[in-house]
Structure formats: C-alpha cells, structure tokens
Amino acid sequence: MLTYNKPTTVDEAVILLQQPQHAARALAGGTDLLVELRSGRLAAQGIVDLKRIPELRALRAEQDGFRIGAAVSGAELGEHATLKAMWPGVVEAANLIGSTQIQGRASLGGNLCNASPAADSVPALIAAGARCTVAGPGGRREVPVESIVTGPGKTSLVSGEFVVDFVLPAQAARGGDAYLRFIPRTEMDIAVVGVAVNLTLDAAGVCTTARVAVGAVAPTARLVDAAGAALVGTTVDETALNALMAAVRAACAPINDKRGTIEFRTHVAGVLAGRAAKIALDRARSRA
Amino acid sequence: MGRYPAGSPGWRDKVTGQANYGADFSLPGMITGRVLRSPHAHARIVSIDTTEAGKLAGVRAVVTAADFPDLPSEVVAGGESPVNYRYISCNAIARDKVLYEGHAVAAVAAISAGVAEQALKLIRVEYEVLPHVIDVRDAMRDDAPLLHDNLYTEGVDPKPTKPSNIAKRTEFLLGDPAAGFAESEIILERSYTTQPVHQGYIEPHACVASVAADGMTTVWSSSQGQFMVREFCAKLLKIADSDIRVLPAEIGGGFGGKTTVYLEPLAIALSRKSGRPVKMVMSREEVFKASGPTSGGVLQVKLGARRDGTLVAAECELAYQAGAFPGSPAIPGCMTAFACYDIPNARTVGYDVVSNRPKCAAYRAPGAPMAAFAVESALDELALELGMDPVELRLKNAAKEGTRALYGPKMPVIGFVETLEAARAHAHYNTPLKANQGRGIASGFWFNIGGQSSAAVHINEDGTAEVVTGNPDIGGSRASMAIMAAEVLGIDYAKVKPLIGDTASVGYCFLTGGSRVTFATGKAVVEAANDVVQQLRARAAKIWKCEVDEVIWKDGVAHPAQGQTDTRTQLSLAEIAASAARTGGPISGKASLNVGGAGPGFGTHLCDVEVDPETGRVTVLRYTVIQDVGRAIHPGYVEGQMQGGAAQGIGWALNEEYVYDDQGRLQNSGFLDYRMPVASDLPMIDAVLVEVPNPAHPFGVRGVGEVPIVPPLAAVANAVARASGVRVNDLPISPPRLLAALMK
Predict the structure, then answer these.
(1) Which of A28, B431, B458, B574 could tie A107 with a disulfide, CB 3.0–4.6 Å?
(2) Of B654, B672, B736, which has the smallest distance from its Cβ to A260's Cβ?
C-alpha cells in the first residue's frame, strides 16, 4: 500500500518524511518520481506531496534577488517577466525540461533533489550562485545549491529534510547568464552535456566575476572554478574563450553510455561553454 | 474522383480519444495476463517451476511452452513472406532456450495486474546461461555461439555439415558482372552498415481472448490482419479456423510490425485454462525488447560505369540480422538494391543471419531501405567523382517500361523517370545553400503487392451504403474504399460507410501490408460495387418491364438506354432501394479476388541539412518527397504516407539504434533514449504526387505506403556528406559518430 499525504506546513512535512513505516518520498512536481514508481525502479511506501505548502509555491522578488519556492513550476518561472529579465539562463534551463505539459508540473526543487547528473536547471542555479533553504528535524539551514547533490540519485539531505526554496541573488548591473545543453533532438530529451555561464563586467567591459557550471559530464553538476577564472580579468575575447573551453574540458569526467561517449561529451562541453559565454557576455553588455 | 472531406471516417473518434484500440476492450469477468521474460540474451532453460505462482490467491492460470503444441520446423506460405510456424511459436513462448533478453518464458493470468506481476516473481526458472552474440558480423564467424543447433545454411553447395547462424544464402544474377567491371572506366567500391530500427507504433501490442466452454475462441486485437491472427493462432494452438473468430480493433500504427502474433496465442491459452476472458497489453519496454524491429545490415556495393555515367556493372553483398529466428528481409534487399536502374550486368548476394536479438518483423518496404542506403550513397559518390549532377546520373540509368529487373521480370508501366524530372524541376532542387549546408538526393523502389481480397457492398433502404472489407486501416484506406465505392455507385461519399469486418463477417482478406489495400482490396470494392450496379439496373428493368441492357447507370441514377422510347421516368439509387422488397429483396454485391498486376512504385527524395561542425549535430532544413503514386484516390492520405515514410527514414538515418550492454541487454527500451524524431525535429515535409496510372487497376492505383521509407537514409547521408565534406557510411549518423568523423 502506498500512503499519500499532502501536508500544508513545513513542520508537518518534516514529521511525515521521518516516519520510518512510510519510507516516504517527497513529491514536488512528480515528473521524475511518478515515472520511477510506475516503472518499478523505485519502491516507496509513501508520498509526501509538498505542493500544498504555500511557501513552496511562492515566487517573489526580494530586496536582493528572488525567492523561488521549491515546487514552483517551470511554466510559472517562464511567465515571470522580471525573473526572466534578470536570470534568463536560469529560466531557460528550467524551461528546457520535458515538454509543455511537463512544464506545468516540473519544479526546481524536484530537478535538484532527483539528483540526476543531467538535470538542466542545476548548472544554471549553481552558476547563478543560488542557495537553497533546507528544512528538517534540526530546523532550517541555507546552503549553496552545489552542496545538495552528492552523486547520481544521492543527496546530502538527511531523513526528514527537504528543500523549501531557492534564493537567487540580484544579478549585477553588468551581469548576464546563459545555459546551453546538447541533445540530439530538439526537445523531449535529456542533456548529453549542459553548461551554464554567469559573468559580470566592469564599466570598461572587463570581466570581474565568472561562474561556470557543467552538467551530465560528471557524477554531479560541477562548478568549474578554473573555467570562471579563465574569463576574469579579460574582455572575454577568443584567447579567454579558448582558455575557458580548455578548463571546462579538463573538468569533465563523463561516462560512455546510451546518450553519448566520453570523447563527445568532453569536446562538446567546451563548445557549449564557449557559446554560452558569448551569450552571457551579450546579455551582460545589453543590461549595462 | 468525387468530393470528399479531408479526414477519414472515424477521425472524430480518434482525435477525441473515443476510438477503441486494442487495449480499450473489456468483457465481464475479464482477467489480466502478464508475461515473464528472459533476463538473459542466450540461455538454456533447465527447468521452470510455476507451482508457487499457481498457488497465489487471485491467479487463475499459468502457461509455459508445455501448454503449446511442439510444432515441426517447416516453411509454409503465410503472412507477408513464407513463415515457419515453429519459429513463431517459439518466439511467442520460449521452448528449451531463450534467445534474447525479453524472450517470453511463461505467462500468468490473474484477477489484477498487481497479482499477475507478483505471481511472475514466484515462477522459478533455472537457466544455464550461454555465450551470446549481438552483431551480425560476429554471428557469421565460425566460432560464434550458435543459436540453433539444427540450423544449416540453405542455398550453398555442397550442403554444409556444420550448423551455422547463417540461415540462408541467396543470389541474383543478370548478365556477366565480371565482364561488365572489366569494361568499366570507373569502379567504386564501398562498405556500409545500418542498425536495426523499430517501427515505433504508438499503440503497444494488445488483445483480449475469450475461449467459451465449447472451445469457440474469440479474439479482439489490434493487428494488421484479423485473418492473419486467426491463421497464426489456429496453427500455433492446433485449432480449426472455424473455431476462432477475430475482431479487429482500431489500430494505432503498424508499419509492418503488426503482421505477426505475440500475445494472442498466450491470451488464448490463458483463457482456455482459466475459463475467463484474458486481456494482455505490452508495456513500451516489452515492445522494444520483444517485438520486431527490422534488420540491421552489413553491405558492400561495387559500381562500374563509363565516364559518361552509364552504369555497366553492379554488385551488392548484404548480410541482414534476422534476430533470434531466421527470416530477415535479405531477399527483398537483394531484389530491390538495383531495381531503380537499367544495369546490364548485376549480382546481389544476401545472407540471412540469426543473433541474440528480438526476431525481426516487417517494417515498411522490408529490406529495401538498407540496400538503397548503400546503393544510393555509392551513386552519390560516383556522381561527385564523375562531376555529374546526381539527378542526371540517375536519369541516365533510370529503369523504364521494359527494363529487365535483376530479379527477373521486365518493368511494366512505371514512373521513375517522371519523379527524377519532377525533382530536377522542383524549386527545392534549385535553391541556393549556405555554409555548412548540403543537399542530398536519393531514389527508391518497392514492388507493391496484390493478393487475396474480399469486399461486400450493402445497399440500405434509405439509399445509403456500407462497404465491408477485411483489412485494418493503417493508412487511411477506409476513406479510399468509400471514395471508390461512391464513384462506381454514383452517389455522394457521405452516403457510403466503410467498415472493417471480423473474420466471420467478410470473405478472406490477406493482411494489410505490401502497400496492397487501396490497390487490391480497392479492386474488390470496385467489383462489388459494379455487382451492385448490375443489380440496380436489373431492378430498374423489372420496374420498367424491359431488358437489363435497356437500362444504363449514370451518376447514381437508372436511365433508359439511348434510343428507347422514353415514357419511363428515371430511377435513383434511393428509389430503387426503397422498393427493393418488392423487386426481389435486399441489394448486396460482393467480390472475392486474387488480384495481380500491382504497379511498382518509385520515389525520389530531396533533403537539405545543416551540420554543426563543432558538435556533429544535423538539422534537417528542408525535405521533399516526390513519388509516382499511380493515381491518388485520397490525396491527403497519400501525402501523409509520403511524409510519414520520410519522417521514419530520417530517424533511421540520424539517431535510431539499439544500445546493448556487454551482457546483451538492451539499454534504451523507451522513447526517451530510442531517439525517433519528434515533431519539432522535422521541417514540414513537402509531398509531390506524380501520377502515372497503373493500367491493372480500374482507377490506376499503385501502392504508396512503403516506397517513401526507401530513399531517406541515403538522401540524409548524401546531404550530410555534401554539407560537411565527410561521408559516414555507418548509420545512424548520430552526433558522436559524425563529430568523430569530422575531427579525424
């Protein structure tokens, strides 16, 4: 028997998720969880549906950025004009997941906690410097997004913990982000490689900060410090882009599988990094 | 042809979800069947113990191969090509050995799917795992693991003394290829491989079977032939044809893949044992692991030509993967390889090879697309080497009426040249390309077939009519049946209702395949409608008290023949129908025929692609299908066939493949990772209908459903080669493969 609970408060959800007899799984949009349950890959005894908790469905601009509930759907993100204007890369990444129908359900919280190395929104959130609020038996803590996933299907969350919301900082005045993924088709597919770039420029057009994150090329999405460093202090010219591409490729540790080869993923990660950096650069310049 | 609406009869049901497909049928007391499948690619079944499963509460029946007759291995006529019922039986449920991952081992029927699945876990199968072989080249090696201990290569002299995975060698020869190559001024030799690809029908296999206490068996199923299902089940279970009635469901795609049985014999056996109706539906994973793809192939092509482009000699050797049991379309591959061209000296050699993969099934123009990929790719290279326009090269060598085909006959009236001329004149062919873009052209041939068909036309009291045939409608054929009947009767299309009868309510019809229905069953419809017209004239003569030949039928109305003193009024079909009881009873016509004279089909495709040189990603920018369709009865459906074939061929060329791990287990048994194109991957495909009527059909019909999947593999590959400067001769041209070639 599968139990289904729909708590309306964070505290209630924490209690339900801890009950051992339920061996419960948290459900946000359900676009991964329900598929895994139906296919038999996952055997959960309980579902704790987090969508009824108001905090998890709220999306609001705050003084220094945005607070996005973990169960806010991709479609809602895509329709939020100011969020999209400030963090187009994050929103585009979230909107690449699945199809129009899936977008009505798919969430940032689910995309992160499903812990797939290929999750589209995760590299974009990491590059953006997003943090998330984790609630659990020990109260609340705020941690960087990159600290959640520890391996394919594995997270650092302990029993009873779940992600409540994400905090995106305000984008810098001369900042821009972008996310690109590679799939052989045009939609309805899973990233073979994903790369996010978030950079800021000074008045002279010199890059002052840069965060680069990659997906689907390692057991988890990775922040590649060396790739960001390759852009800082440059005008993001060809030399800097080549250094960026090399740094990204050096950080790749992919596998051969049905979706791509090690050589292909490593090469294309560099290509996408260069292309994403150019888009981010254009966005940073046009915002200035 | 008269006026008719764009959609088919029943389209409203389809778009609103009300149409009843295979899985939609239910009966009181019905229970659910599930299949236990092999986790191994190749293993001997040491024992199967179903005791515990049988004891589980809610389980009503368990069957294994022991519940089915142990049939002899013999090849008999049936299906779309000769069949061996032992192979079909052993494929439906494994006997002694499992030959691929997903091979059915046992089946359970229970009061719910959950109980049935629980029961499957209680069945204990002891396997002796054997070495397996997936690749066709590996399977042909002398030291390859053997799938069948008693399989000896047919068609080689002397008869082999050792068993082999090569089931058959076939050769076709015309003229003297060695002499032809000796006189050639340019010789081009290339090797190619293609991957097995699944038909990808959206509807998984599904059926309900119910065996009554007196043994009368009724099956509701989604297939390409209710008579095929009856015939196969009767043979597999040794029951009389008259003791099985098969009712066709609406079908959600077949493309050749539903020309055999998988679940039906199991459902019948489970129903017989349980006394309950049993429903069985495959999951998508089961469809990929246990139902037929078409073969992958390994092909070598050699072309010899003069400097002016005249082809003098050609050879093609191909080895096709049959999957677990013999029966790949290697022979049609050999027959179609050079059928587009007039080549005086040619030879093709084909090998039918078994390996530890699901048994292949028919897929649109079985065997032809792989051969065309090789030949049309080689021709493109020849055109480049000769500095010739690829359309001109094909025109110079095109088969015409009277051309001797390698496989024997002379071509009848065909329209291949017309498709090439239409391609050359098309705006697509003359549009400039940009950097990283390329244009490919390729042609293709398919025989099309006729065969046995029946039709009945019933006239109702109100002047409407029913047209009953026995062919499931996989491509809009119902609309064509109604249009042709309406045309002969001279009444409005809206007054003709086309229906698909079950095996007890219409005369025998060979299955829906070989692009035969609008041609052959259509001819039966025309004859049945003509039968009705004869009866209508007789009734009018009776009313008018004159001879039948004094009545002519025109535009749905009986008229006095010319020269008769005209005191008589005209009689409409509706008027004659209303008084039928007084003039001799119901008016009903029928025809049962074995139709010959199918018109061969030819197509030429144009494809523009753009290659991303940094990632190897291919985008199809523009695609045009040009085909001789004989005469299009319902042009919208004909275009749909052409577009659909092209879409499937593009997927075959670019991304579709089966990925196995080193244990021979399929890694991508779902649409997420078995990458068929989605709608946004394709441009709107332009369809150009060339009409060279087939003289053997009253309306000039040729089959159209299979030709359009023949050219796309090479059309795409040629476009990629011309866009990137790199030729990939191994399908699919997936981004990793193309990028690796680009970076060499």
Answers:
(1) A28
(2) B736
ipTM of the complex: 0.94
Tally of structural domains, chain B: 3
Q: Are residues B488 and B441 in the same domain?
A: no
Using a CB–CB cutoff of 8 Å, tell me whether A41 touches chain B.
no
Place of tokens 């003569």: B541
Cβ-defined contact of B617 to A257 (cutoff 8 Å) = no
Task: Compute CA distances B519 → B236, B263, B449, B471, whole Å.
Answer: 31, 30, 8, 12
pTM of the full structure: 0.96
Shortest Cα–Cα distance, B49 to chain A (Å): 24
CA B69 to CA B66: how far, in whole Å? 8
Question: Which among B615, B677, B681 has CB closest to A268?
Answer: B615
pLDDT in tens, A88-102: 999 999 999 999 999
C-alpha–C-alpha distance, residues B129 and A118, integer Å: 35
Lookup: tokens for B89 = 């039986």
The residues spanned by each domain of chain A are 1-49, 177-287
The verdict on domain A177-287 having CATH code 3.90.550.10 is: no
Q: Identify the domain containing residue B239 by its residue range.
A: 28-130+203-252+258-290
- Per-residue model confidence as pLDDT tens for chain A (288 residues): 788 999 999 999 999 999 876 678 999 999 999 998 888 888 888 899 999 999 999 999 998 899 999 999 999 999 999 999 999 999 999 999 999 999 999 999 999 999 999 999 999 999 999 999 999 999 999 999 999 999 999 999 999 999 999 999 999 999 999 999 999 999 999 999 999 999 999 999 999 999 999 999 999 999 999 999 999 999 999 999 999 999 999 999 999 999 999 999 999 999 999 999 999 999 999 986
Euclidean distance between CA atoms A19 and B45, whole angstroms: 44
Tell me, what CATH number does B500's domain have?
3.30.365.10
Nearest CA in chain A to B655: A184
| CA separation for the pair B176, B228 (Å, rounded) | 41
Nearest by CB: B615 against A185, A187, A271: A271
